[in-house]
Amino acid sequence: MPYPLHVAFVWHQHQPLYKSRGNLAETALADVPQQSEEAQYRLPWVRLHGTKDYLDLILMLERFPRLRQTVNLVPSLMLQIEDYVAGRAIDPYLALALTPAEQLQPTQKRFVLEHFFDGNHRTLVDPHPRYCQLFEQRNDLGIPWCLDHWKPEDFGDLLAWHNLAWIDPLFWDDPEIARWLERGKDFSLTDRQEIWAKQREILARIIPKHRSMQESGQLEVTTTPYTHPILPLLADTDAGRVAIPQMQLPASRFQWAEDIPRHLERAKTMYQERFGCLPRGLWPSEQSVSPAMLPDVAAAGFQWLISDEAVLGWTIEHFFHRDGSGNVLEPQYLYQPYRLATDQGDLAIVFRDHRLSDLIGFSYAGMEPQNAAQDLIGHLEAITRQLKQRQGDDRTSLEQPWLVTIALDGENCWEYYDRDGLPFLDALYSRLSQHPEIELVTVGDYLDRFPPRETLPVDRLHSGSWVDGSFSTWIGDPAKNRAWDLLTAARETLARHPEATETTNPAAWEALYAAEGSDWFWWFGFGHSSNQDAIFDRLFREHLCAIYQALNESIPPELLEPVEVHEATGDRTPQNFIHPIIDGCGDDQDWNQAGRIAVGGSRGTMHQSSPIQTIWYGVDHHHFYIRLDFQTGKQPDEIHLCWFYPDRPAHNSPVPLEQLPDLAPANYHYRHHIGLKLPTKTLWFSEAAEFNTWRARPSRARFAVDSCLELAVPWDDLPVEPDWGLRLALFVAHRGEFSEVLPGEDLIQMGVP
Q1: Position 31 pLDDT exceeds 90
Q2: CA–CA separation, 125 and 458 (whole Å)
Q3: Are 38 and 90 within 8 A, CB to CB?
Q4: With 0-12 CB in 10 A as exposed, 13-18 as middle and 19+ as buried, what is 258?
Q5: Mean pLDDT throughout 285-314?
Q6: Which residue of 91, 308, 467, 628 has the lowest C-beta tally within 10 Å?
Q7: pLDDT tens track for 141-170
């Protein structure tokens, strides 16, 4: 019997718990205006993403009745949506938007100027002329100028536009929204109040619409443990050493497996109250799994869960190789569900294709929507061809059912797409609706029709997450470990109060559940950072303080101090994929997730006279990128990039410059070379050949020079495969003669996605 290729899209909708407990005695956060007692939400992202990302995603799907998908709604997200709808929540941004512009105090005006352009300016600010005008004034003339020259009408318009811009384009045909967009300026307090009412109207539709579409069969809604905790680490923080045996663990071992069923039961109860049925699927927080958590998941009545291909690879001891296009070479392992047999019953588990998920999450936003949609479908067609080839016969149809799982964050990526991703999704869904060999399914429906054929021994299931199959994003760093020690102390304090049950002292338990959430540990220490790190730090400690207060215990003094110092750091590795526009302008939003290396005097006397001030670098699935910021009044004549691929045998040749010093890394041999002559804006590309020579090659690399230099080098120009490493040095030269090598004795390290 022939089968189509089944594809399950799973969208994960989650925001951290921004609700403040307001119980810290330390000085208030300097950049957050003080709120009234009922204004207890520190940040606005549930409200803003609620009007931009949760409802439109499924309304877009509803236009294509043949297509089915799965959406995961985290319980703590649903609680916050409901608080806004019921009028129980107000955040500092909303409080300011509902303040008469004439009454704004100087500190409030500064906060508005600093934060009311938050968001990707290319997609949320630039399309709206008045918002863009205010943004350019703030950037070009500076905050002090705006404070001196802006009138109340300017602040009033900014307060309005910060909310209007986050309303999804799918709703722009609403008569009230269309009227606001057309007018564009001179927004009154009444207008802003009406915009807030419209936001609540959109928020109020989110959960009911998910329920109705699940009841119609087009959607499957899943859930996550209550406050998004990492269940394997609740069971035992020593799970961190499964993937990284030498990991430095917290001083105190956290072992509270009994909290796992509590999170699962609360999630299940919340789900049943809102959807009128029990959940079947579980998105374990951060796709984190371990043998220790499985019996509780099965006992709670869940039927299936989801994780990442890295976890499957560790479990079956198989590395997923990919071809030059990024397609898995062993599709038969990844594209099927597996059975997990526990003492509490069987579970099914599916593993997402990490790269296909990342293409939507990080790369397709930078492509033309039609091309991006076709690229994804091309990958799915390639998977179908590979599976057919492995059938061992000449049949031209699939003779077994296979499931490709594409699972990712369903909210943050759309901020970088044109019109919040609507053109891309329309192009993708239109093609998929008519595709004869691809069928979109919910995970639950697929499992009903095609139960798992293979079994994974439960004791062999790898303990890991979607991030490299490890837990290093949430534990192992000194700051993360300190946070775990604070959590452990609070949990042990609660355990010493057996009289404090969830019935007799719900405040203590709610605070514990909030503190056990994964998001705090994500932002602590190495790996991720934002301009709101201090707020996350404070929220985490507020939850811990609330445990002690509910138990009438003294608050430990260490909870009154930040877990870590939140200051702008110097050098750093890339934080995420980037896709900058190559125009030589160095837009900071384009590069805010890039790696950064300070040169100039900050790296010693060796580079004090360098024309280069800062090196930025990063990758996406299509290019690697370099940006060079110049010292004031200095611009080099030539820049040469040379790189090689460690442990990949090939011809390598010396740097093609005169007067090279016999010092590393100038005396290294390299595989590829790009030369840039800045005065003439010319570029040439060459590849190492035999006998220490270089051979010219064509290239589609692009660079631009204005206030800085920006360069994009396509991976397709290079004979590389996914997961190859790249080591790069930058050479400053004048008329072919060496001047200096950057970043010094080190090499810039990047990897092919």
Answers
A1: no
A2: 50
A3: yes
A4: exposed
A5: 98
A6: 467
A7: 999 999 999 999 999 999 999 999 999 999
Residue 633: which pLDDT band, with cuts at 50, 70 and 90? confident
Q: Flag whether the pTM goes above 0.85.
A: yes
Determine if residue 207 is left, alpha or beta; phi over 0 gives left, psi from -120 to 50 gives alpha, anything else beta. alpha
Element (H, E) at 484: helix 478-495
CB 731 within 8 A of CB 600: no
393 token code pair:
């016969």
CB atoms within 10 A of CB 706: 10
Pairing of strands 595-598, 612-619: antiparallel
DSSP character for 565? -
CA distance 425 to 409: 15
Strands 737-742 vs 725-734: parallel, antiparallel or unpaired: antiparallel
Residue recorded with tokens 């951060």:
286
Q: What is the mean pLDDT of the chain?
A: 94
* 466's tokens: 């979607």
Are 487 and 229 a contacting pair, CB within 8 Å?
Answer: no
Q: What is the C-alpha separation between 187 and 455, in angstroms, rounded?
A: 61
Residues 241, 471 contacting (CB under 8 angstroms): no
Closest of 11, 15, 14 to residue 71, by C-alpha: 11
What whole-number distance in Å separates Cα of residue 70 and Cα of residue 12?
9
**Peptide bond preceding 451 in cis form (omega within 30 of 0):** no
Cβ(160)–Cβ(187) below 8 Å: yes
Task: Note the pLDDT tens digit of each residue in 424-433.
Answer: 999 999 999 9
Convert the pLDDT of each residue in 560-574 to its tens digit: 999 998 776 678 899
Residues in contact with 182: Cβ distance below 8 Å, sequence separation at least 6, in sequence order: none
- Identify whether the C-beta of residue 500 lies closer than 8 Å to the C-beta of residue 552: no
Which residues, 6 or more positions from 635, have their beta carbon under 8 angstroms from its beta carbon? 611, 678, 705
Cβ neighbors of 445 (< 8 A, separation 6 or more) are: 68, 217, 220
